[in-house]
Amino acid sequence: MENTTPKSRDVAGSLGMAVVFASTTPLLLLDAGLTIEAASGSFCSAFDLGSDKVTGADLATLGSGEWGGPQLRSLLQATLLGHAAIEAYEMDLVRTGLPTRRLILNAHRLDYVGAEDVRIALAVLDVTEARLTERLKDDAVREKQMLLQELHHRVANSLQIIASVLMLSARKVQSDEARNHLHDAHHRVMSIATLQRQLSATRAGDVVLRSYFTELCDTIGASMIYDRRLLALSATVDESITSSEVSVSLGLIVTELVINALKHAFPDRTRPGQITVEYGALSSGWRLAVVDNGVGMPADHADRKPGLGTGIVDALARQLGASVTITDTNPGTRVAIVCP
Asked: Where do the structural domains in the chain lie, given as residue ranges?
């Protein structure tokens, strides 16, 4: 008796159909002409298609033709020829009168020994909700960053107003001691305002220290150096990158040390000078230093009670796990903060 079993029932077809019918993932079995030989119940349910209208239909004719895109068809034909396999191909399924669905497609050629025809198993994953959730999350993160930057900007403006009030008060008082205290307060408020400006201009994440310290020195110089023709402030920094949290502490240390150098290294404000901020990575840490070529440390330096600026620098260095070393460079002073 002549065997009447159709070619579609060869080895590949039989195995493919068994996989499709058992699949809980939306899955299609396609022949070499991209005709659907079998469809899982999950596919028909997911896309509101009757199984009787799917089996035996050309893929391009499903629904209103939304599965017949030329790019998808080209990829499937390349898969049939063995030139490629579709791995996580994303496409929008645009349907008339229905919401657009975002899909991820995976297609693999089924070609077994003894099979008469080649077939494709096409798996479909609907990621519409997942992509929507990701977009909402990204929008929320961007909105939070914008609000945070706006907060930094407003705080910086408020601090500058406070600094202006302090400077006006310093000009009015008669006592030299009170005037010096007000000037110190003005410098510290300006240093915090400067860092706030930096934060408002820097996105959350890693901070490139070369540009960070360069901009910080430019801002400090513009607001605190009495005559930039006599006194220069610059930064020499390597390619190091650090977190925004650590950069804030480093910025506060630099600002305090620069304020201290401006106040004590060049007391007569007549001699030319240079203040340099240095930063470099070590084999297992980093080194930050502020160096000046001023008058150097006073003879009774060791006996003097540490000032507020010194206390701030020591506290910030401890938070970073670093140590502070002060060296008389003759002329000038070098203050180094080393994190081993």
From this structure: 7-126, 129-204, 205-340
Examine the pLDDT at 61 and tell me if it is beyond 60: yes
Domain 7-126: CATH superfamily is: PAS domain (3.30.450.20)
Q: Which two tokens stand for residue 162?
A: 């406070």
pTM: 0.53
| The CATH classification of domain 205-340, taken from the options 3.30.565.10, 3.40.720.10, 1.10.10.10, 3.30.70.2760 | 3.30.565.10
| Separation between Cα atoms, residue 232 and residue 261, nearest integer Å | 12
- Cα 284–Cα 290–Cα 291 angle in degrees, nearest 5: 120
Q: What is the pLDDT of residues 36-50, one digit of tens each?
A: 988 888 898 888 888
Closest CA to 288 of 261, 254, 321: 254
Q: Are strands 231-237 and 273-282 parallel, antiparallel or unpaired?
A: parallel
Strands (E), the chain: 27-30, 36-39, 86-93, 101-110, 119-126, 206-208, 231-237, 241-243, 273-282, 285-292, 323-328, 333-339
SS3 string of 42-75? HHHHHCCCCHHHHCCCEHHHCCCCCCCCHHHHHH
User: Per-residue pLDDT tens for 5-15?
Assistant: 444 445 455 65
Rounded-to-integer distance, Cα 63 and Cα 43, Å: 13
- Where would I find the beta strands (DSSP E) of 127-205? none
Give SS3 for 205: coil
Highest mean pLDDT among 106-120, 192-206, 249-263: 249-263
In the three-class reduction of DSSP (H, G, I as helix; E, B as strand; rest coil), residue 211 is classed as helix
CA gap 1, 75 in Å, rounded: 42
* 1 contacts: CB under 8 Å, gap ≥ 6: none
